[in-house]
Amino acid sequence: MVENICPEKKQEFANICLARNTVARRIEDISSDIKRQLMSKGEVFDFFSIACDESTDLSDTAQLLIFLRGVDDEINVTEELLDLQSLKDQTRGKDLFVAVSSVIDDMKLPWNKVSGIITDGAPAMAGERSGLSTLICNKVIEEGGEAIKLHCIIHQQVLCAKYLKYDHVMKPVVKTINFIRAKALYHRQFKQFLLDIHAEYEDVLYHNDVRWLSRGSALQRFNSLRKEIKEFLETKGQPMRELSDPIWLADLGFLVDITSHLNVLNTSLQGKDAAVNQLYSHLKAFGRKLQLFQRHLSQTQANTIHFPALQEIMNSFSQDNISVQMSRYAADIASLAEEFKRRFQDFAAIEKEISLFSSPFSVDPDDAPEQLQLELIELQCDSELRSRYQQLSLVNFYRQLDKGRFQEIRTQAKKMLSLFGSTYLCEKTFSAMNFNKNRVRTRLRDSHLRDILRIKTTAFVPDQDCLLEHRSQFHPSH
After folding, report:
1. What would the pLDDT profile of 325-339 be if each residue is shown by its tens digit?
2. What are phi and psi of 48, to 5 degrees?
3. Whole-number Å distance between alpha carbons of 237 and 158
4. In this predicted structure, what is the pLDDT of residue 272?
C-alpha cells in the first residue's frame, strides 16, 4: 500500500518496530505451521531416525533437542527439529525416554518405522541397561521394528583426539598463552611486538577444551610464533626453557601435525544432510592414513613428509636423539589407531550394510542378506543401471530404481539414508539456543525458545495462505 500511495515514505514505514506481542504471536504462528507441515510429511515416511542431545541453558533448565531424519517412498530425505523438551527435574535415561516418547506420539509417528537413534554417548543417553538409546530400541522391538543404536561419530572422534594427551607439551603451551593473554598490558605489548617485527600472525589463540578444533589451532599458532614468543618471554624475565629443548620441540611438532590431521577429519565430519556412509568413509580413510603414518615413522630413515612441523624441527636440530623419538611417535600413532578401532565398533557392526548401500555393484551376493540376493544379482547384471550408478549421485540412483523390480534394495537404501551419523545438528542448534537465551534474555519462555529454534533450523517455507485462512482477525488489538 505504501509503495502505491506514498512511495517516498516507504523507508519511514519500514523503520517502525512491531509490538513485542505481535512479534511473539507471529513467531508462534510460523512455528505452528512448520510443525503442521512436519506432521504431514511424517505421515509418508517409510523410515526415520532421531538424534538426541541434552544441554543446560543459562536458567539451569535441561533442554533436550530431538532431531528427525526421515525418508519417504520417493527417497526424499527430510532433516528437521522434531521438538525441544525442557526438563525441570532429573535427566535420567527413563526421564529422557518419557520426553522423547511423548514427542513421537504427539507427532503421530509410528514406532515400527524408527530405524535408529544417535546420541552423544553420555551414560543417560547410551547406557546399556537404562540409557535412552536402549529404551528406544526396546520400544521399537516391541512395536515390531528394529533400530540401530549409534554413538555420534564426531564426539567419538574428539574423544580419540584427546587420547594423545602429551601433557608435557600442552601444559607449558597453555600456561604460556595464558601468561601472554591474561594481562591486558602484556597482551597489548605482545601484539605490538609481533606487528613491529612483521610476524606471520598478529596474536596467539586461546585453547578451549570444549571447542573441537581449538587444540589444533592453538598449537599450530604457537608453533608458528615460537621464536617470537621465546624472545618476548625473555624480555619479561620469564624464559621458557622448553623452547630451547630439541626433544620437547620435536614433541611439539609431532603434536601440531597429528592434531592438524585430526582437525581435517573433524571438519569433514561436520555439516547438514551427511549420510552415514559418507561419514564412515571419512573415518575409514583416516584409519588408512594412520597406518601410512605409522609405516613412514617406523622406517630406519623416518619419512616425515606428512609431518611438516616435525620435519622443520628435525632440519633445525640435526641431533641423533631426535631421530630416536620416531619409534615412540610410531607407537603413539599405533595406539591412536587402536583407540579409533575400539571406539567405532558400533559403526563397524553395520559396515556390511553401509557397503551394500554405497557400493551395490561391488558386493558379493552371497554376503548380502537373503531377501536382497536375487535383486542384487539382477542389479549387477544390468549394464544400463551400472552406467547410471557411475553418472548419478547415490540418492538419485536409488530414486530411479524401479519400485517393483528392486523393492527390497530400495527398502534397504531408505533405511540407510534415514540414519543420522552424528549429532552435529544438535550441537549447532545449541549454539543458536545460547545466542537467543543469553544473559539478558534468561526469562525467555521454553515454548518461545522452542519456536525460535524451530524457525531457525527448518527447511520448510511457512505457508502464509494457510496461516491467514485460520485467523479471524489479521491485526488483533493488544
Report:
1. 899 999 999 999 999
2. -155, 150
3. 37
4. 81
Locate 26 and state its grid cell: 507471529
Work out the number of other CB atoms within 10 angstroms of the CB of residue 161. 22
Q: Which residues pair with 221 in a beta bridge?
A: none
CA distances from 323 to 165, 257, 258, 314, 331 (A): 21, 17, 17, 8, 14
Q: Which of 347, 188, 172, 139 is nearest to 249 (CA)?
A: 172
- Verify that 258 and 385 share a domain, yes or no: no
Cβ-based burial of 136 (10 A; exposed 0-12, middle 13-18, buried ≥19): buried
Residue 320's pLDDT is 63
Residue 478: CB atoms within 10 Å: 7
Q: What is the pLDDT of residue 478?
A: 54
pTM reported for the whole predicted model = 0.87
Query: How many CB atoms sit inside 10 A of residue 179's CB?
Result: 18
Q: How far is Cα 140 from Cα 113, in angstroms, rounded to an integer?
A: 8
Provide DSSP, 11-58.
Answer: HHHHTPPPPHHHHHHHHHHHHHHHHHHHHHHHTTEEEEEEEEEEEE-T
The reported pLDDT for the residue numbered 216 is 87
Residue 384, Ramachandran bin (φ over 0: left; ψ between -120 and 50: alpha; else beta): alpha
Long-range residue pairs from 397-403, CB within 8 A, at least 24 positions apart, any chain = 398/75, 399/74, 399/75, 403/73
Alpha-carbon gap, residue 388 to 391, rounded angstroms = 5
Listed as ranges, residues in the chain with pLDDT below 50 are none
* Cα dihedral 418→420→425→426 (10° resolution): 120
Domain check: are 310 and 244 in the same one? Answer: yes
| Extended strands (E) in 197-273 | none
Judge if 389 and 446 occupy the same domain: no
Check if the beta carbon of residue 310 is closer than 8 Å to that of residue 304: yes
Which stretches does DSSP call E strand in 57-105?
A: 62-72, 77-87
| Position 255 in a domain | yes
Bridge partners of residue 48, in order along the sequence: 70, 114
Q: Which residue has the cell 552435529?
A: 424
- Residue 132 DSSP symbol: H
Name 318's bridge partners: none
Number of domains, the chain: 3
Residue numbers of the domain that contains 241? 159-346
